Here is the input.
Amino acid sequence: MDIYETMKHRRSIRSYRPEPVEEEKLNRILEAARLAPSAANRQPIYFVVIKDEKIKQQLKKAYNEEWFYTAPIIICACSLPEKAWKRSDGKNYADIDAAIAMDHLILAATAEGLATCWIAAFKVPLVKSILQLSPEIEPVAMTPVGYPLNVTEQTYRKPLEEIVKII
Ligand SMILES: Cc1cc2nc3c(=O)[nH]c(=O)nc-3n(C[C@H](O)[C@H](O)[C@H](O)COP(=O)(O)O)c2cc1C
Here is the structure.
C-alpha cells in the first residue's frame, strides 16, 4: 500500500476482533511515531501502550464506550507542554507535535492492516491518574489498535475548492 492508498484506506473503526497484535507490528508503528517531525525538534511526545486488562477496565471511568475496549491494545499519545517549542506570540506546539506523531502511528497501523480510531472525548484527569502520568505529561488522544470486525464506509470530506485557496 503506498501512502495515498493508506490515507484512503484509513477509517475510524469502532469494533475490533479479539486477536492480538503482533509485537513486530506494534514496534513498527511506534517507530513510525518516533520518526515524526516536531517544532524545533523538541520531541515533546510520550506514548503509553495499554495491554493490561485491569487498566483497560479502569479506563472505562475516563471513556465509557464498550467498543473501545474490544481492541487488544490502546495507545495514548501524550504531549509535554513544558518541553515544547513556543512561537513568539506564545502559542505552544506540544499538542500539534503529539498529533503529528499520532497520525504517523495511525497511518503506519493502517499500512500494517490494523484498525484505529482517534479518541479525544475522554476525561483527562482520570486518564492521567489511571496511567500514572507525571504532572508534566498531558494525554492528547487515544486510539484502540487491533484487527477490525466491521469496516465502515468512507466518510464525507469537503471538496478541495472549499478548503484550498491558490493565490
Ligand atoms: C482529534 C480527533 C478526535 C476524535 N475524537 C473522537 C472521539 O472522542 N470519539 C469518537 O468516536 N471519534 C473521534 N474521532 C473520530 C472522528 O469522528 C472521525 O475521524 C471523523 O468522523 C471522520 O471519520 P473517519 O476517521 O472514519 O474518516 C476523532 C478524530 C480526531 C481527528
The chain is about 35% helix and 15% strand. The pocket of flavin mononucleotide is lined by residues 11-12, 117-121, 141, 155 (CB under 6 Å).
